[in-house]
Amino acid sequence: MSETVRELRRPPRLAPGARVAVVAPAGPVPEERVQAGLDVLRGWDLDPVVAPHVLDRHGQLGYLAGTDADRAADLQNAWCDPSVDAVLCARGGYGAQRTADLLDWEAMRAAGPKVFVGFSDITALHQAFATRLGLVTLHGPAAAGVDFVKNARAQEHLRATLLAPETVTTIASRGTALVPGRARGVTLGGCLSLLASDLGTPHARAGARGGLLMIEDVGEAPYRIDRMLTQLLRGGWLDGVRGVALGSWTRCGLYDEVRAVLVDRLGGLGVPVAEEFGFGHCEGALTLPFGVAAELDADAGALTLAEPALG
After folding, report:
1. Catalytic residue status for 216
2. Is 2 a known active-site residue?
């Protein structure tokens, strides 16, 4: 039986003037998008700094933002810098799993709690921060992501979560209850494909028991979503989960087909399942904290945090 998902330590909220480091632990990012993201952060009266290797590209593997060692060094150095209050990922892509294995988790734990933000491939780091550091992290827009630099809804929700988290303790769904009901638990999750591929690795959670699972994905055909959910089911990872909130399924085919898979694979869990909570790979993506107690009301289409994401 897997250990029950428990509440994690909340980092302090940001204040005007806080220094935030932008890192690229996964895929490469264009310079113009980095600069656009920095402009947004400066507009919030934050002090953004860019890690040395953010604009790098791996010499042989062009889908990586530089070498594994450099990406890991950027993340670790930013985290361990006492002048930095938050670490924001420039983008997802691929490579976070490779980065996680090179981090000095003891040194990062000693550096104390700070805010960590990212999504997509960064799911692997969300899991590692939970298991290695015991910290709440934010599943939110990438600091140099297309949606973040152009979409006011995504910007405002992340800004409020960072600077005034008590104003965004309820996330409303735009969809319906796939399985009705109400449940309480601790939030966890991220990109479905990363959760599935992370199974059995040193930094992954042992399971979702006692948790409210938040999942989404992009560019995965319905049969692949079926395969990944089936893997989690067969591996026992979903045993004891208390509820499921679904985000976006952009470029995953016809949504009716995706919904049918979700109902088929998740409906037998006997827990509330609600759709279209507006997080993940979608326009105007909202920011969700992982590691906080919350209530999912599938019938009302609401996820309500028991306390703000940040202290």
Report:
1. yes
2. no
Domain identity same for 224 and 255 = yes
Kindly tell me the sign of the dihedral angle through the C-alpha atoms of 126, 127, 130, 136: positive
Q: What is the mean pLDDT of the chain?
A: 97
Which is catalytic among the residues 126, 139, 203, 281? 281
CATH number of the domain residue 274 falls in = 3.50.30.60
The b/e string for 122-155 (b: 16+ C-beta within 10 A; e otherwise) is bbbbbbbbbebbebbbbbbbbbbbebbbebeebb
- For residue 126, indicate whether it is catalytic: no
Residue 199 resides in a domain: yes
Kindly report, residue by residue over 201-235, the tens digit of the pLDDT.
999 999 999 999 999 999 999 999 999 999 999 99
Render pLDDT for 109-123 as a digit per residue (tens, 0 to 9). 999 999 999 999 999
What residues make up the domain containing 109? Answer: 19-167
Among residues 126, 193, 216, 276, the one annotated as catalytic is 216
